[in-house]
Specification:
It is built from one helix and 31 strands. By secondary structure, it is an all-beta fold. The protein has a five-stranded mixed sheet, with no helix packed on it. Strands 5-6-7-8 form a four-stranded antiparallel sheet, with no helix packed on it. The protein is globular.
Length: 407
């Protein structure tokens, strides 16, 4: 687990998500995505039984101060060589980049200063130059790094969000063809929208409260009107409350209409959240894992912004383990979205739940490597057409290669 260095020490479960984002040509509308969206519909044929063997570890940091404190990981082709690279944020004030070789290996780390307490990472082409950029939260700020196309970044730009943030997401909220950002924080229960100008600069457009503490944030078109919406998993302010998922429907101009909500009574406090069309009806659904790792709640979307809690899936984490992150991907290449859930304590555990295409999931398969305990990113790091998983650990980042039952 990650310790946030604020006025008082808060123990937070780690959230991830980073997904691979295809970068468009400079004259194209930017393609953006959010951490946790995963990789789906991969090519290369059906993989009936995905298998993730002993992962390969890549240390983060140059000394034990940093080695013990990786937080979030993102996977994207930073230097545009058709090989996935990864970025990992560290607890104090840095992030590291390792460039991939396209075979599942990664080169030496390059360190960048982020500002205090960096967390979740999202990637997009913020200045529309065809090169991947990234944004990450740093205490009260969201920091933007513009990529140079070779794995490096220019001077960071800090956007002030308030007291602190728990999650960020990227989408084109005002439909002008330029990526925008949204950040949510539990410390002040606020959501802040930043509109991008297409040159890498952002302006604060809207800031509002929900009355609850947002912990996880996902952007998607939940009412199928072509305008990005928001889903926020919020922990209740009441001592006996479990929390709710709030749905904010976008107006297409960077503003949102009043929230709908889905209560999660009977479930332990809300943790992380991911999105996918789990029943293949063309309408986005949500999956929310609780902080204790006891279960995943599946919220089925109606296509009009409403969601119904249709099932809870028990997770076989050991007592006291907890869940750090949840992501969506098609791990067995059958066209059905699957889920992966990572444990939050050391030594950790990785659970994979294969989707059945009707909103259900097969029993979880457990992978115990003795090191992973954090946030995840999904990408095809060895170019074999199968989605692999990167997970943060106390030592750095562990890469699980998907071998499709052939360890």
């Amino acid at each position: 687990m990650r310790l946030r260095l604020t006025g008082q020490l808060l123990v937070l479960l780690m959230l991830l998500s980073a997904a691979v984002i295809p970068m468009p040509p400079t004259n194209a509308k930017p393609v953006v995505n959010n951490a946790g969206a995963g990789v789906s519909n991969q090519t290369g044929g059906l993989c009936q039984t995905p298998h993730f063997g002993q992962p390969r570890g890549f240390p983060v940091g140059d000394d034990t101060t940093f080695l013990d404190n990786p937080d979030s990981v993102a996977a994207v082709d930073l230097n545009q060589d058709n090989a996935i690279d990864f970025i990992v944020t560290q607890l104090l004030d840095t992030m590291q980049v390792r460039l991939g070789d396209g075979n599942g290996g990664f080169g030496p780390p390059t360190t960048f200063v982020t500002g205090a307490n960096p967390g979740k990472i999202v990637t997009a082409d913020f200045n529309l130059d065809g090169k991947p950029d990234l944004a990450t939260g740093n205490g009260p700020n969201v920091s933007v790094f513009l990529g140079n196309g070779s794995g490096g970044f220019g001077t960071r730009t800090d956007l002030v969000t308030g007291i602190g943030f728990e999650s960020i997401a990227v989408a084109d909220f005002n439909l002008d063809g330029k990526p925008d950002l949204v950040a949510a924080g539990a410390a002040d229960s606020k959501v802040t929208v930043f509109l991008g100008d297409g040159s890498g600069n952002f302006s604060t457009h809207q800031r509002f409260g929900l009355g609850e503490s947002p912990f996880s944030l996902v952007a998607g078109d939940f009412n199928l009107d072509g305008k990005p919406d928001l889903a926020l998993a919020c922990r209740s302010s009441q001592p006996d409350g479990n929390g709710s998922v709030f749905i904010l429907l976008g107006n297409g101009n960077g503003t949102f209409i009043p929230a709908l909500s889905v209560g999660l009574q009977g479930q332990p406090p809300i943790g992380c959240m991911t999105m996918g069309d789990f029943n293949l009806d063309g309408k986005p659904d949500l999956a929310v894992v609780d902080v204790f790792g006891a279960s995943v709640a599946i919220l089925q979307g109606a296509g009009d912004g409403r969601f119904a809690r249709v099932r809870d899936i028990a997770l076989p984490f050991r007592t006291g383990e907890g869940a750090a992150d949840i992501v969506t991907a098609d791990f067995n290449l059958d066209g059905f979205p699957d889920l992966a859930v990572s444990g939050s304590t050391f030594p950790g555990e990785l659970l994979v739940l294969l989707g059945t295409g009707d909103g259900g999931f097969a029993a979880p398969t457990s992978y115990k490597d003795g090191s992973t305990s954090g946030r995840m990113a999904v990408a095809d790091v060895n170019n074999d057409g199968k989605p692999d998983i990167a997970v943060t650990s106390p030592q750095g980042v562990a890469i699980f290669l998907n071998t499709c039952g052939n360890p």
